[in-house]
Amino acid sequence: MDYITTRAAVLRARNTQRPYTDSKPLSIEEVNLTPPAAGEVLVKIRAAGICHSDLSVVNGDRPRPLPMVLGHEAAGVVMSTGPGVNTVQAGDHVVITLPSCGHCAYCTANRAVLCPNGLDASTKGRLLTGARHLQDEHSLLNHHLGVSAFADYAVVAAQSLIPIEPIIPFDVAAVF
Fold this sequence. Notes:
Distance between the termini: 36 Å
Helix content: 10-25%
Number of helices: 5
Structural class: alpha+beta
Mean pLDDT: 93
Strand content: 25-35%
Number of strands: 10
Order of helices and strands: EHEEHEEEHHEEEEH
Radius of gyration: 15 Å
């Protein structure tokens, strides 16, 4: 199988004791990332913010399947697209958002954060397409909120991307 190697922050256990600077719940590992399939996009992450959602997975307040690559507030550059993607192209600057299908009642009412399809994917540690693209030498790794932005590269569903103007700094866009 074709893949690229990327560095990623992997969470393997929750409820780690604080301070996290001592307990180090995340480990920086080299993992494999398979290329985007239909409806998916490969993004080079240029900046990522940390959110309470990330911390809630670390401390166990928000149970998610582990191991998992965290991070969901990010900005980057599109490297390639899978078949059927026509909303972005290589070289586009993008913000990555929570997964939402774009066609359910919540999405069409501009309440995408309540999208049941996105919630289902996020709870299962998958992309909106149902896929998992990250793996270590032993098993597949789960995606955090359809993104897994604490990595050099991420494969995400095209619906999780919002194109931005290249003039916007990545570090600002990531937390905007």
